[in-house]
Amino acid sequence: MKVFFRTIHLYLSLAAGIVIFCSCLTGTMLVFEKEIEHTLHAKRYYVQPQQRRLPVSQLTENALKQVAKAKIASVMVYTDVTRTVEVGMIVPERKDKKQEAGKHVKEKPTGASAKKGKKDKDVARPNLTVFVNPYTGQVTGQYNHRESFLYSVEMLHRFLLAGKDSAGDMVVAICTLFFLFILITGVVLWWPKTKTVMRQRLKIKWGGSTKRLVHDLHIVTGFYTSVFLIVIVLTGLIMTFNWANQALFAITGSKLVKEQPEQPKSNYTAGTEKLSIDAGVQNIPAIKTADYYTVRLPRDSSATYGVIVLPQGAIETTADTYYIDQYNGKVVGEQTFASKSLGQRVKAMVKPVHTGSVYGLPTKIISFVVCLLSLIFPVTGVMMWLNRTRKKKKPAKKLAVV
Description:
50% helix; alpha+beta
């Protein structure tokens, strides 16, 4: 039986080894993406706190002055007194840039726009973030995620730089599935018959020969990281394949909701002016104790303010959403994380578990170390395969002629 598993392990590794190595390398780089950005551009994200904060509406006006023909889509406000306010903007792009961006991200229309068969420009995602000092109103920097180095790393990690729904996307997805079988067969092949053999396979013999060291690096580190890698791969599959996502909801006994619920409307009356952002969030007490809140501006006269509130210490994907009438400031709807189905709550944890951010710095360090160690497998695996190949091809000794 082990011969069968060894064959699967070998040929799947040879087929997907390069892509797996690439995914692990880029994954290692992306674990501390935020920390890298905040360290390299500290003046963009952090300010010296002062006594009085300016109104958010004034901060957005200052941000608009910096970018021509821009439209404000959202505003993110932190309760941390040292953080800047982040204003998400939609900036018209040149045709060549749109074509380039389209290779990486293809947004699918939703809601009413989907029925019309075209994308609603008003619901497009912000493509520029402007950072504003909440005390002075001074713009501290601008950031376009699509133009950053780490965005290219992410696109390499997810799509081999080919874009969503491309051949590169399919290759990464298939290789991720292969990686799951490689890990499972690796554990089966590692499993020892006796306790003596187990003790040998739990530690690396650093003083052994090169071949022994390569062998130990492959199987010992493989064993210690296999559980973590299986979890990372499974979460990657859920984010990649529809059948894996459907399986998650089936296991949790939840109904799969494919579309976002229809948002409530504002009660518009002629001659009534829209409330400012500051007045719009006053009826949400939760923002006072939140880590941050994000306000999505109304798309039209009948839409609402969408206020996303992340409770203190909560995981980023577990925020609550409130819908505010843009004319009277009343809460006309809400979607809290606790009110979601079990399947939706579990699904919200998939990405944080995959990226290692689920419990902050400790799990990020674990994820970083695991991804770093996983780079050993493709290298040592190829070395072991080449050693076996050379043995088979070694010529037989010629008989001496008398």
